[in-house]
Design a protein that fits this description.
This protein has two helices and no strands. With 66 residues, the chain is an all-alpha fold. It has one domain. Keywords: Membrane, Transmembrane, Transmembrane helix.
Length: 66
């Protein structure tokens, strides 16, 4: 989970830097921007999925112990 969150934070920082220069990008740079955006969205989905999985696992462990 820490690795996914770390990757998401670093990718978000890179994305924000790229977004600030979006108007100055040529076609190749725009495609790279779209690729980074897609990767960031994938990481976001994976982090949310992992968070729900851990939350469900913790709840099941608490139910077993009661």
């Amino acid at each position: 989970m820490k690795l996914l969150v770390g990757q998401l934070v670093i990718t978000a920082l890179i994305w924000m830097g790229m977004a600030s220069f979006y108007n100055q990008m040529n076609e190749l740079n725009t495609w790279i921007f779209y690729l980074v955006t897609s990767w960031m969205l994938l990481l976001l989905v994976l982090v949310i999925k992992e968070w729900f999985r851990l939350k469900k696992s913790t709840k099941e462990d608490n139910d077993i112990n009661e």
